[in-house]
Q: What sequence folds into this?
């Protein structure tokens, strides 16, 4: 698997514009999105299946994996590119067994390096830390710091994802601290020009590559 790096775009639960979710994801991909996460907590299984299948088709055309948030059954049903698991979700080992060795299994680790080390030990492909800044999506999430990323870089061999209130302006410091991916909802899908918003994040990683 190619090392994950770049913009990790997470779909909004409520579209911010009159365009469809598929159109919005197409724009995020065109702007440089390197991983898409489908996140929907509505409980409408028909809607979730329909949207996930549509997004999976778009992502396959773009050559970008689609990860399903929290729902291992849905990820398995559509043969998604992977699944993202939180504290109360399925065991990463069960996700690996059901999705196969080529799937991406990501784990939320909040502000805990110990949880991240355990996730790596049992086969996670990436770990996510955050929130780092004030987040409209998860305003009550625990606070993480750039120092956590720096410590994680020393002890983990898998990609690090930063999430929570990230913008192109404050995201640069997280990339410098060791984040391989920046996970974003509002700062991409909440903008009038989604493609340009995604491109602004994409440039943070281009800048880092050119300086290496």
A:
């Amino acid at each position: 698997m190619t090392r994950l790096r770049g913009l990790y775009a997470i779909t909004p639960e409520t579209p911010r514009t009159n365009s469809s979710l598929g159109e919005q994801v197409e724009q995020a991909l065109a702007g440089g999105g390197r991983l898409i996460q489908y996140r929907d907590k509505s409980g409408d299984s028909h809607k979730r299946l329909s949207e996930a299948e549509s997004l999976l088709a778009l992502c396959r055309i773009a050559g970008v994996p689609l990860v399903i948030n929290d729902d291992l059954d849905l990820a398995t049903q559509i043969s998604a590119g992977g699944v993202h698991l939180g504290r109360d979700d399925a065991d990463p080992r069960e996700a690996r067994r059901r999705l196969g060795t080529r799937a991406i299994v990501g784990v939320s680790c909040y502000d805990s390096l110990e949880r991240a080390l355990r996730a790596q030990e049992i086969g996670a492909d990436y770990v996510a830390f955050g929130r780092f800044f004030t987040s409209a999506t998860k305003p009550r999430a625990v606070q993480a710091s750039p120092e956590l990323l720096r410590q994680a870089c020393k002890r983990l061999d898998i990609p690090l994802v930063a999430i929570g209130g990230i913008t192109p302006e404050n995201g640069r410091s997280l990339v410098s601290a060791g984040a391989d991916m920046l996970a974003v909802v509002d700062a991409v899908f909440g903008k009038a020009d989604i493609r340009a918003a995604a491109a602004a994040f994409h440039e943070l990683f281009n800048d880092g590559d050119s300086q290496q």
User: Anything to note?
Assistant: The mean pLDDT is 93. Strands lie at 6-10, 33-38, 66-69, 82-85, 104-110, 126-129, 160-163, 181-184. Residues 6-210 form a domain with the TIM Barrel fold (CATH 3.20.20.70). The chain has nine helices and eight strands.
